[in-house]
Amino acid sequence: MTDIRLVVAGAGGRMGEAVIRNALRTPGIKLVAGIEKAGSKMLGVDLGKIAGGEPIGAVVTADPLPVIAAADALIDFSTPESSVELADLTAQARIVHVMGTTGIDEAGAKRIAAAARHATIIKSGNFSLGVNLLAGLVEMATQRLGPEFDVEILEMHHKLKRDAPSGTALLLGEAAAAGRNRNLADLRTKPHDGIEDPRAGGTIGFASLRGGTVVGEHTVILASEGERIELSHKAEDRAIFAKGALRAAIWGKGKGPGLFDMKDVLDLR
């Protein structure tokens, strides 16, 4: 089988480096280019060097159009603005677009959905196998336990992370709401701050912590009178997200256009 020609957006970031390093170890993947914004110090750097090895003849560019046109798949951990623009290009090229960017607003989500009419877009707030299994457990728990259990989702990440709650926390919140056959927007309660009225029953709250170099920690707390259940996941290495994204890219080849997530990739539906 022909290797998948892969481009990595956000190649100079933490996740971009993890994707590149793991792609070099993954059979069936051929790295062909990286993408970074204009002015980045990473422009022209060979992807092999980014991974700490020898040059492989694939470099970082600020011009995504020609490299996407010649690729089979794009793995994208960049910025909300960049991901939306890249989705327009992957739609034109009709390739696989694995998107791990979080913090995308409603307008951006609509553009991505439109791009998925032509591209194979696999979008997830978290590409870890463990987190996606956790989401399934959360959905089951809220379905079985009922609305008398309040849901609080606590997440912590490194101090440079900008969006809050994290994409993973929102993924877990959506799972909790799905267990109650509701939309997260209907059940989400605002952060607790100051003197407030008692929270409404059955709602879903979020708390975000930032500090140090924490890769990602998430705990879903289900609390009722007299008892509490806590379901947790701790990421210790970004490689788990990179491996999941590469698995998604391989899964997406030949699938045809559509908007998918890791439940599709892992057959968890």
What would you note in describing this structure?
This protein is α/β, with parallel strands linked by helices. Helix 1 (14-23) packs across helix 9, helix 4 (80-93) runs parallel beside helix 5 and helix 6 packs parallel to helix 7 (167-179). The chain contains ten helices and eleven strands. The mean pLDDT is 95. The longest helix has 17 residues, at 129-145. A hairpin with a 2-residue loop joins strand 9 (216-224) and strand 10. The protein has helices spanning 14-23, 47-50, 64-69, 80-93, 106-115, 129-145, 167-179, 184-187, 239-252, 262-265; strands at residues 4-9, 29-35, 60-61, 73-76, 96-99, 120-123, 150-157, 204-210, 216-224, 227-235, 258-260.
Write the layout of secondary structure elements.
Layout: E1 4-9, H1 14-23, E2 29-35, H2 47-50, E3 60-61, H3 64-69, E4 73-76, H4 80-93, E5 96-99, H5 106-115, E6 120-123, H6 129-145, E7 150-157, H7 167-179, H8 184-187, E8 204-210, E9 216-224, E10 227-235, H9 239-252, E11 258-260, H10 262-265
Parallel strand pairs: 1-2, 1-4, 2-3, 4-5, 5-6, 6-11, 7-8
Antiparallel strand pairs: 7-9, 9-10
Helix pairs in contact: 1-9, 4-5, 6-7
